[in-house]
């Protein structure tokens, strides 16, 4: 017989090839090793190794009967054949016993490996449990654990526990914004927004480059409806902070008139802002808010001094810094008033008249003194007094500006 794997000759009765070590298949259409392994595994699982022995014995007997079924008994040939079969079966029986012993040993080794794996699995689970416990403890004593505890307490209105938890988190790390935000919410819930603001401003004095802390402070201003403080906060911050928070930077409105010169006529002031922004302004020297007058068209700058405060507000309600500009308009004053009749001697009484332009009021004196707004107000023609009279008149506009003085010398005989 030759090995079906390497082709080398195999002596009669050998079950393994000495050259390649492969097992010899005596019956091509049946492999007893499959049944043996199946029976062994099943026996190891069920705890009954006899199943393997019974299964193998039954299969082995059936195969021998099948091989001998077609043989015809003869004289010398049959005797020789039986001798060979006896020798072959004897060697086979010994090989099968050895195989069964070997398979039983394999089953025991497999059971030991299974038990070892089970112990390893239990050890791994135990280690995982220890790691989980350590992880939970580490989390509970960490910054995030303290912050989450504070947020849960805040959610159930337990402000004392919430404040303690957030302060505990700050003690662990005072550079992160979550604890400041949580603590500010505690103060807001207790109607103490000023304390919440001081919390942020105090921290920012020490951490002037902490962008996330600035962001948290801005969100506090938005949450507490104090958006007008955002531009002031960023205006005082380093330029790197403003560059990092462009969404909160709103450009100031532009004025069409400069405030470095005086105007001699009423002016129309136009304000413009970035796209999507609205403009609010005041004319009473007070800083504007979103509750101030909304810009809808040119603002008329009247005679005199006018101060305009204006802000631009973006779609998110974030305002710009306020811009203040003052204007002075001085209308040309009338020359000295026209007074009739002219200076001279008169033999009969005359009426003295002053020509008063629109927007002006006339004042006069007859005792040689300079007329002012405290002098006699002109309301109509004045009868010329007897004797010599020095008549002086002046015009005053609505802004109190005074014209030149007109003087007349009358003599009535």
UniProtKB/TrEMBL annotation:
Residues 101-113 have a biased composition (Basic residues). The keyword Transmembrane helix applies. It holds the Pfam family CHB_HEX_C_1. TPR repeats lie at residues 177-210. Keywords: Membrane, TPR repeat, Transmembrane, Transmembrane helix. It comes from the Bacteria. Residues 66-92 have a biased composition (Low complexity). InterPro entries: GH29D-like_dom, TPR-like_helical_dom_sf, TPR_rpt. Residues 52-113 are annotated as: Disordered. The chain crosses the membrane at residues 120-140. The keyword Cell membrane does not apply. This is Chitobiase/beta-hexosaminidase C-terminal domain-containing protein. It comes from Dorea amylophila. The lineage of its organism: Bacteria, Bacillati, Bacillota, Clostridia, Lachnospirales.
